[in-house]
Amino acid sequence: MNTKKISSIVLAATMAGALGMSACKPTQGQESPAASQQASPEESNTLLALNESLRSELGDAYSDSWIEGNQLHVAVTTEAAAAIVKAAGAIPKLVTIDAAQLETALQAVLAWRNTLPTEQGAAIHKVIPDGRTGTVTVFVAPDQLSSVEAAAAAAKPAGDVPLVFKESAGLASPL
């Protein structure tokens, strides 16, 4: 196998793991005092089990989930799914893009990354789907941010799923 193919496989495996872990992630950014309180291990396990149950029950209407203020929040695409989430004791959020659409967009962005010139592709440090906002976030080294944004604007690799670009101080990705 050549180095580029191995790197692609490693990146895909890493992103699959990150995507699996992102299905129930803590909030990012500034938190309220209630959100900063840590749930006990038992409470966390209960919320994670509830998330898995809801994800299975909601099917295509499920988009994402996160824990905030020791409560499970679930992004869903239909009013019926929101009612199920609420009845289960979680907090629903109506969104327009489901988990499958986000996964498709994520994989398309990762494939597109491999078509970029080496310096641009290596400057993409991380790609993360976000069901709360219906976006895919691309973390890029500051010196390549504008060129990667321009390339994405021309190629539209995620289709109808919006891309959000953020500066990253991470390490270059192997290609």
List the helices and strands and how they pair.
Blueprint: H1 3-22, E1 25-26, H2 33-36, H3 41-58, E2 62-68, E3 71-76, H4 79-87, E4 91-94, H5 99-113, H6 118-123, E5 124-130, E6 135-140, H7 145-155, E7 163-167
Parallel strand pairs: 1-2, 3-4, 6-7
Antiparallel strand pairs: 2-3, 5-6
Keyword list:
3-stranded mixed β-sheet; 4-stranded mixed β-sheet; 7 strands; alpha/beta; disordered N terminus; 175 residues
- What is the spatial order of strands in the main beta sheet? 1-2-3-4
Largest sheet: 4 strands, mixed
Percentage of helical residues? 40-55%
Cα separation of the termini:
13 Å
Order of helices and strands: HEHHEEHEHHEEHE
> How many strand units?
7
Task: Quote the beta fraction.
Answer: 15-25%
Task: Please state the CA-atom Rg, rounded to the nearest Å.
Answer: 17 Å
Structural class: alpha/beta
Count of helical segments?
7
User: What shape does the CA trace take?
Assistant: elongated
Q: Averaged pLDDT, please?
A: 83
Low-confidence stretches at least 5 residues in length (pLDDT < 50)? 2-23, 25-36
Could you characterize what this model shows?
The protein is α/β, with parallel strands linked by helices. Helices cover 47% and strands 21% of the residues. The chain has seven helices and seven strands. The chain has helices at residues 3-22, 33-36, 41-58, 79-87, 99-113, 118-123, 145-155; strands at 25-26, 62-68, 71-76, 91-94, 124-130, 135-140, 163-167. The strands form two sheets. Strands 1-2-3-4 form a four-stranded mixed beta sheet. It has a three-stranded mixed beta sheet with strand order 5-6-7. The radius of gyration is 17 Å and the shape is elongated.
